[in-house]
User: Which sequence fits this backbone?
């Protein structure tokens, strides 16, 4: 957890050190997802981390906690983007098994993984061009506590997945307020993001998974939206639910953002009805 | 015969609608006095904006003010005529970047908020101006 603490510390310092006034418009860097890519909470958007425009650097550090009745997920990470073109990100996830570990007397009470991400803006612009902003991303994931996943049928402890995503901000698109639309497809075999390994006894090949979100900006600082993410179902020991959430984001300036969400995560590792709260803080430049 | 009367009515209605321009945005921005205050507020903000003020130091600021008021008025559906140069022409040699354009958008948003322009009305004007970015930057 030292890494998490260091990142959190860094998140607190960025707002004081980074010049954040040039570049793109407020909130167009999005928040940071639980896999480290810029976007919403559970789905990446085509936007790149931070506020760098052409020829400029941007980036962010973030920390997120998701708390359901039985589990807790902590994530922290960092992302850099250059030229409003290429984003590199790193995130570490720690999934606290809570009740499940107690009930089943498991040898480990948490599962962790590292996620290395890359995202390339292919064409278009979130706001200005004729075409929406379209980005191609890849995430290399390394599950670090593979004993439990291997016992329940996961086939491997690391894997790479790809996603293609399009985002557009429609000025005045929601009864006069700005509307952000986002849709993407992912090619993955990660079980519960990869926390339960990759591939399974039921299915070991990657699936095409849909994800998307819609959000309304009440003004440049406040955004309210919904997200949806389809998930694979590779393990026979338990079902894996698609995820959805309702989020409220606050972007007071280009250095700081906070996102609060209500997430419906369904069945995770045999425990059903995992609804919970999501809180994420982000420092950007 | 009835059908002809109906057609005539429809045609008349269509013509009337075309003749009356939609000036609701113009009115939402406060008409010419409102647009004048928005443009002047934006220019005052630019004058204090270290990101882009350099681009305005060699221009005839009175002329920029007048042409911007005309332009915004036309875009908002107001009873004005734009007498300035084309967007490409008026930004030639400035080599404005996407960041410069965004800085100007932020100064305009702030000026509209100062004037009490509603968020939907702000978005309507920005939606009229956003497609011009390509004619403004990299000239």
Assistant:
């Amino acid at each position: 957890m030292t890494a998490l603490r260091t990142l959190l510390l860094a998140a607190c310092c960025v707002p004081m050190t980074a010049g954040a006034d040039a570049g793109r418009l407020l909130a167009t860097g999005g928040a940071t997802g639980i896999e480290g890519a810029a976007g919403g909470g559970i789905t990446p958007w085509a936007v790149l981390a931070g506020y760098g425009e052409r020829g400029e650097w941007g980036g962010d550090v973030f920390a997120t906690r998701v708390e359901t009745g039985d589990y807790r997920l902590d994530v922290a990470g960092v992302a850099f983007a250059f030229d409003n073109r290429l984003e590199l990100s790193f995130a570490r996830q720690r999934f606290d098994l809570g009740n499940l570990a107690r009930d089943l007397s498991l040898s480990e009470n948490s599962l962790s993984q590292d996620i290395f991400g890359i995202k390339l803006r292919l064409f278009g612009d979130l706001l200005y061009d004729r075409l929406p902003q379209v980005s191609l991303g890849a995430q290399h994931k390394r599950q670090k506590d593979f004993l439990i996943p291997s016992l329940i049928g996961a086939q491997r402890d690391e894997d790479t997945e790809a996603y293609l995503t399009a985002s557009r901000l429609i000025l005045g698109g929601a009864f006069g307020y700005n509307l952000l639309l986002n849709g993407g497809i992912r090619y993955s075999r990660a079980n519960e993001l990869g926390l339960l390994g990759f591939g399974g006894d039921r299915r070991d090949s990657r699936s095409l998974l849909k994800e998307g979100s819609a959000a309304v900006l009440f003004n440049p600082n406040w955004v309210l939206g919904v997200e949806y993410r389809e998930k694979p179902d590779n393990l026979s020991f338990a079902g894996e639910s698609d995820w959805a959430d309702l989020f409220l984001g606050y972007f007071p300036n280009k250095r700081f953002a906070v996102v609060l969400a209500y997430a419906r995560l369904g069945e995770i590792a045999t425990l059903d009805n995992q609804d919970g709260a999501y809180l994420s803080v982000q420092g950007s430049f | 015969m009835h059908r002809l009367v109906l057609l005539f009515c429809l045609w008349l209605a269509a013509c009337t609608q075309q003749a009356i321009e939609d000036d609701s945005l113009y009115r939402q921005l406060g008409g010419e006095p409102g647009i004048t205050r928005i443009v002047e507020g934006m220019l005052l903000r630019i004058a204090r904006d270290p990101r882009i003020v350099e681009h305005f130091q060699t221009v005839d600021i009175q002329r920029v003010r007048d042409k911007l008021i005309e332009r915004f008025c036309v875009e908002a559906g107001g009873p004005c005529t734009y007498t300035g140069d084309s967007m490409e022409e008026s930004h030639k040699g400035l080599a404005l970047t996407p960041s410069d354009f965004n800085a100007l958008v932020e100064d305009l948003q702030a000026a509209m908020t100062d004037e009490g322009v509603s968020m939907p009305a702000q978005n309507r004007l920005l939606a009229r101006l956003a497609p011009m970015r390509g004619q403004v930057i990299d000239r």
